[in-house]
Amino acid sequence: MIKIPVIPRLLALSLLYTTLPARASDIGGISATSNPVANSSGQATVNAYQVLNGTYMNSTFTGGVNCQSSTLTVTPYAGATFGQRLPFEETYQEPVYDMRDINGDTVPDNPGSILFEKTIQTLQKDNLNLTAGFTASWSKSLDKKMVDLCRTAATNQIALQQASLNMKVLDYEISRLKHCGNLAKEGIVWASNSKYAAICADVNVINPPGVLPDHSHSIPKVITKELTSADPVETIGVHVRKAPWASSP
After folding, report:
1. Could you tell me the pLDDT band of residue 25, with boundaries at 50, 70 and 90?
2. Distance (Å, rounded) from C-alpha 27 to C-alpha 105?
3. Where are the domains of the chain?
């Protein structure tokens, strides 16, 4: 066993004691433990706007012709957010404690004593955010050839419908002309004060009933033969027609 002299041992203990950290609770018997507090607050608002693209604009015609065209979709939007802290306080009073050491013993003479209160601004504010705008999307078919063929088919289909309409109009007008003419020939007409008189107002009958159209006939010229007979009838040139049964010429 190795024995260490007393003096070096005391010197080592004194050095160890001086190198140990001093705690705040060991100073004057008062607890002064550090307790830092850091507060932070924030607010983040995220607004998401979704654009849904629908189908193309379709134009449907008879005959099964269905054509698509370009589509433009415009969607306006507006949003608002409001934040408020309750209760609303602009200021608050913070106490100031008496930390004076008059007798110099490194200990406050009046611990816990409040000297005065100071006014602190809270800087508390209401938050209001307004957002507005619009989103737009444009859709167009990439197959231009098919679009042109569909438009041609639609144009032909419209022409066929117009021709069919013209035929129906023609049938109606001819039927009206025929019925109005036949009734006029029979002496059946609308009264002048009737609201239906306009139906046959533009129909004219060229040959009214009982009136013959203007015409003429040619009269053939009769050639007479002068006779020298002693018969006075033949002398005056009168054509005499005898009965077929006569025996003499």
Report:
1. very low
2. 10
3. 57-70+141-204, 86-121
State pLDDT tens for residues 190-216. Answer: 998 999 999 999 998 886 655 555 556
Q: How far apart are CA 217 and CA 193, in angstroms?
A: 44
| C-alpha span between 129 and 122 (Å, rounded) | 21
- Residue-wise over 88-99: b if at least 16 C-beta within 10 A, else e? eeeeeeeeeeee
DSSP codes, the chain: -PPPPHHHHHHHHHHHHHHSPPPGGGSTT-------------------------PPEEEEETTTEEEEE-EEEEEEEEEEEEE--SS--SEEEEEEE----SSSSSS-SSTT-EEEEEEEE-----EEEEEEEEEEEEE--S-HHHHHHHHHHHHHHHHHHHHHHHHHHHHHHHHHHHHHHHHHHTT----TT-TTGGGSTT---SS-TT-PPP---PPPPPPP----SS-HHHHTT------TT-S--
**Banded model confidence at residue 174, pLDDT cuts 50, 70, 90:** very high
Query: Is residue 162 pLDDT above 90, yes or no?
Result: yes
Q: How far apart are CA 116 and CA 109, in angstroms?
A: 16
Residues paired with residue 91 on neighbouring β-strands, in sequence order: 121
- Inform me whether the pLDDT recorded for 14 exceeds 90: no
Neighbours of 150 (CB within 10 A): 19
Q: Which residues lie across from 137 on neighbouring strands?
A: 73
